[in-house]
Amino acid sequence: MPYSPKKPCKFPGCPKLTHGTYCEEHKKAEDRRYNRQERDPTSAKRYGSEWRKIRSRYIKANPLCEICLESSRLTSANTVHHIQTLKDGGTHDWYNLQSLCKECHSRLHAQQGERFKRKT
After folding, report:
1. Is the pTM of the predicted complex or chain greater than 0.70?
2. pLDDT per position as a tens digit, 12-51
3. Between vectors from CA 52 to CA 25 and to CA 48, what angle results, nearest 5°?
4. Dist CA 115 CA 16 (whole Å)
5. In terms of Cα–Cα distance, which of 28, 81, 84, 91 is closest to 55?
């Protein structure tokens, strides 16, 4: 399947072309801005080195997107999602985790109204 053409980076004034929303340099800057301004400050404590180890083990054991598998599609997973969020009492236990592709993960959060809602 052919690749779609690159688009300009969404960062104001950046001339670089990318397949994503931001070029690599500005993607990191946007992630830092989001984590600093919009994310719950206690999330850094919940997503530390222990979480990275758990996530790595889970994604190795479950390399395919679980939602896509239900639809008989084979899509590699690149995200581990908490079914019940940590701020709502969820845990890092495997029964509360789900491996997802980026598209399914974004769709889930958009349906839940997280990260994609605009501040008014």
Report:
1. no
2. 899 999 888 888 888 888 888 877 776 666 666 677 788 8
3. 85
4. 25
5. 81
Closest by alpha carbon to 38, among 96, 109, 107, 111? 109
Q: At residue 12, what are phi and psi to the nearest 5 degrees?
A: -55, 125
The tens digit of pLDDT for each residue in 56-104 reads 999 999 999 999 999 999 999 999 999 888 878 888 899 999 999 999 9
74 phi, psi to nearest 5 deg:
-100, 105
Quote the CA–CA distance of 31 and 83 in Å, as a whole number.
22
Integer Cα distance of 23 and 69 in angstroms: 31
Exposed, middle or buried: residue 67 (CB in 10 Å: 0-12, 13-18, 19+)? buried
